[in-house]
């Protein structure tokens, strides 16, 4: 396969099975019906239990419209069954997206979708699950060799769609440790940076999330070998995952997973507490 062919091939589940196109079409219908009804995104969001930012993401196709939202919106917006008719296709598309990731990512993606706990240590950038739309777009825009605009938008949409794991019930247990240097790096510029910091505050305040910062000033460090993720899929044993320069590795050997888990425990012990970490991020937002 040539480099050009590799760049053109689908790399995300949304690209591979057309999920992005479906979500974009449903989002456009939702927006048209909302505007015809004379409702703002904030007003509509209040009626269906979502904030205006989430409604905006749904309407632009970068976030999957939940079936219960389509159900409620069909009545609220006088859609006459149009939105209800889309529910089976949306459910099927989401299911495909969870299982049809590219080969290099597929094994981990399936496990992430069914995880009962997920723990991540980030050293270079904000984890995809925590990224804002603008931060994600900046990451893909800055990638080399460059990606075309269509590919960038598809990958942003696919990345944001994964964040629905935060809405699962019963909730997944999350913990994140982020190097302070990552928070200091203004990817995308000042406005994008502040928006990303506020996103971390929002997620970090969720009851099922523990977010910690590893201070740069620590004299000792238990893991200078790079970032990694630990997760426990429902009914299965804990696994590890790491990806360096596009080379992924899914770790299933018990002893290797045990070593990562032990290392992660030391990382958390040396990092700021969740309360201290959120205070630090709040000060960073206030200083900008």
Brief overview, please?
The chain is α/β, with parallel strands linked by helices and 288 residues long.
Pick out its properties.
288 residues; alpha/beta; Endonuclease, Chain A; 2 domains; six-stranded mixed sheet; 14 helices; 6 strands; globular; disordered N terminus
How would you describe this structure to a colleague?
This protein has 288 residues and is α/β, with parallel strands linked by helices. It folds into 2 domains: 3-97, Orthogonal Bundle (434 Repressor (Amino-terminal Domain)), CATH 1.10.260.40; 103-286, Endonuclease, Chain A (2-Layer Sandwich), CATH 3.30.870. The chain has 14 helices and 6 strands. It has helices at 3-8, 13-17, 19-37, 41-48, 52-59, 67-76, 82-99, 103-113, 133-141, 149-161, 180-184, 190-204, 254-270, 274-286, and strands at 115-122, 173-179, 209-214, 228-233, 239-244, 247-251. The protein has a 6-stranded mixed sheet with strand order 3-2-1-4-5-6, sandwiched between helices. A hairpin with a 5-residue loop joins β4 (228-233) and β5. α3 (19-37) packs antiparallel against α7 and α9 crosses α10 (149-161). The protein is globular and about 60 Å long. Residues 1-17 have low confidence and may be disordered.
Tell me which CATH architecture of the largest domain applies here: 2-Layer Sandwich
User: How many alpha or pi helices?
Assistant: 14
Mean pLDDT: 86
Using the coordinates shown, work out and report the CATH topology of the largest domain: Endonuclease, Chain A
Biggest beta-sheet profile: 6 strands, mixed
Structural class: alpha/beta
- The structural domain count equals 2
Unreliable stretches (pLDDT < 50, length at least 5) are: 1-17
Rg over CA atoms: 20 Å
Task: Output the helix-strand order.
Answer: HHHHHHHHEHHEHHEEEEHH
